[in-house]
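Re: export button greyed out
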Amino acid sequence: MPSLSALNAPHVVVDWGTTSFRAVLLAADGTQRDRIETGDGIQFVEKGSFETRLLTLLAPWLSAEGALDIVLVGMVTSRNGWIEVPYVPCPCAVEDLAKGTITRTLANGSRAILLPGITDPARAPFPDVMRGEETQIVGFGLDRDATLVLPGTHSKWARVAGGRISGFRTFVTGEFFALLTQHSFIARAAAGSESAGEDMGAFERGIVDGAPEGAEGDAMLSLVFAARTGMLAGKLAPGDIRDYVSGLLIAQEFRQARNCGFFARGERIGIVGNDGLNRRYAIVARHFGLDVMDGSDHAAIDGARQILAAAKGDLT
Amino acid sequence: MPSLSALNAPHVVVDWGTTSFRAVLLAADGTQRDRIETGDGIQFVEKGSFETRLLTLLAPWLSAEGALDIVLVGMVTSRNGWIEVPYVPCPCAVEDLAKGTITRTLANGSRAILLPGITDPARAPFPDVMRGEETQIVGFGLDRDATLVLPGTHSKWARVAGGRISGFRTFVTGEFFALLTQHSFIARAAAGSESAGEDMGAFERGIVDGAPEGAEGDAMLSLVFAARTGMLAGKLAPGDIRDYVSGLLIAQEFRQARNCGFFARGERIGIVGNDGLNRRYAIVARHFGLDVMDGSDHAAIDGARQILAAAKGDLT
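Workaround output, generated via the alternate export path:
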């Protein structure tokens, strides 16, 4: 792991996504000193005006501190953002990510350091990709061999081994959940019951029904129909449906990840992220016989600082 | 199989669904003499006024022919329709379906015969259901032991054995296809390319990528992400996406059905239905080493006639 002692001055980490701009000002030791959050997502920024917009948004800090190192992660590093930073192939260590950064010196002398995403060329039928989650994985730590899951619209399962991210795979679980509960026969069945609040009992029933042992557990296209047949059988109420389907789909994700070799019963798994799904993923993980290591809420910032430290080590 | 000689007079078969009303007037021997199709779906009919609406819609035939036997299938037999006809449990023969019908004598002396749906109580976690497809299965024929697939929004896979429908399972493949191509990241990727027309090459690539051998083939939540990574890798064009995803999902359906025991390589399969998907399902079936028996376009009418004949045998 790179020494964070390379960070001997305040610095900024910016998560600049499609719909929002979120920046933190950090002391050299990582203490958060200030935050700026706005709705200036990259979709609202014209090609060619990213630098100006960045300097404007961070003007309060830059006036007070002078030139700063500004680490940028998120869609700002994609084809639709400021500068497309090529994916770094797995297996990769922090140093590989640092080498994959693109650095620009800005008008006021600050340095923008754009972080790369990563790709897994071993994945079939096409190389898999992530952009942002690799920084969270670094923040979680590459010093323990482990399987990590990062819940989300497009969940990422990754293997860490020998101080590197050795491979990963995307599961579009969150997207399927949104599609089913907003637009499908399930949405119609659950209509009008949204105020019922969270029902963890229904969630746990979904886990059990969503990943039965035996080959029938692989029949996901069939298993989700239980959301309808359960209602017809009088065993599910409209207010149960959202949480039942949530449990069913996350259990399917774990079953499929297990079949892909990501874990076996009795192992430990790290759950990384802060999108509100960690608790649900932890419940499912325990159902699959896993020990859970909870990731810090600051994994993204911690990871960005480590990559910055490694990049500075290269530069100085 | 019941003798169709019980049908010694003209009769009517009505498929009355949520959004449409479709009736055919048949001679005793099954020859189609006339059709009436309107937009009077059951959602536009008030509870209590189904009989009046039916007699009004069929007035031209009833004036000319007098009282007729009128077989009704579709959502008109559901909780939201005219009369809820209870599901008949599998395994079931034509005679069981005939016994499950509900008959009403109408104001002009005609008889309305509402056909039941069927349920498979052996299915976990809840009994599976169909309403309408069982009539198509009867029309295809129960005299050959076989696995049948009825493609659709909610595809049905059924086993026919010993002259009975022995069991079945629903796969929501068509619904997933619509959700993914209308509302998801895939919809956004394919936007603007809808006029490209059918691309069976992309469809066949989807089949291969959608059901690889080995445990990774079970990871459907991951496999569909290939629609994005294939574009990022420059291997899929926006115009390919719809057909690629169609192939991928139908191949997943076959893989899952195979894992559930519906078929093995080298067997024969019947493809029943007329929703335009039969050709695609036949291509995927051959990819899985199956011999295809094509169902007639008239399976629903043929089945309704057989159940009517059996019901009349009971009544007379």
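The radius of gyration of chain B is 21 Å. The button fix ships in the next patch.
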